[in-house]
Amino acid sequence: VDKPPVRRVAIFGGTHGNELSGVFLVKHWQENGAEIQRTGMEVKPFLTNPRAVKKCTRYIDCDLNRVFDPDNLGRTVVEDIPYEVRRAQEINHIFGPKGSDDAYDLIFDLHNTTSNMGGTLILENSRDDFTIQMFHYIKTALAPERCPVLLIEHPNLKYATTRSVAKHPVGKYEK
Questions:
Q1: Which residue(s) pair with 66 in the sheet?
Q2: Rounded to whole angstroms, how far apart are CA atoms 166 and 69?
Q3: In 3-state terms, the chain is what percent helix, strand and coil (to 5)?
Q4: pLDDT digits (tens, 9 = 90+) for 112-134
Q5: 3 in a domain, yes or no?
Q6: What is the pTM (predicted TM-score) of this model?
Q7: CA within 13 Å, CB half, 169
Q8: Which residues are within 8 A (CB) of 72 and not within 5 positions of it... i.e. 6 or more apart?
Q9: Dihedral pair phi/psi, residue 20, rounded to 5°
Q10: What are the start-end ranges of the H helices in 48-127?
Q11: Residue 45 sits in a domain of what CATH number?
């Protein structure tokens, strides 16, 4: 199947404000963008939840990684709307709109975990041939280091995660 090449990639850090690996990497790449730039591609490092990062807390009002569903993205912006819902709408505007041809091709959402799972890639769709091939490449490049792939094909989470705005969503967890 002929598919257009991946041209626009975003790297998210700080979806959860107390997961600092992604925050440090995004801030580093915002200052030193040459490290991640590639010819023919736009690569944009992005701090997803700056208020939570500033307070070093998971979130301010609700989990940003659970509000990218149609109801929250379509909510009317009123004064008392939760901060993360408003932020989700902003992110969807910048990197989406979700489900459209204009959405970013790929979003890497960088997280930390306290689980002993090492560096783990998160796959949300077992039928996404591009992402599966990319994961194979990453695993081969990292060998002999382990790089497990966790398939989370959950119907509710699939549509609510920060990375779900992209055509190819990728989660990366690091202990």
A1: none
A2: 13
A3: 35, 20, 45
A4: 877 777 788 888 888 888 899 99
A5: no
A6: 0.90
A7: 25
A8: 85, 88, 89
A9: -90, -15
A10: 50-55, 70-73, 83-95
A11: 3.40.630.10
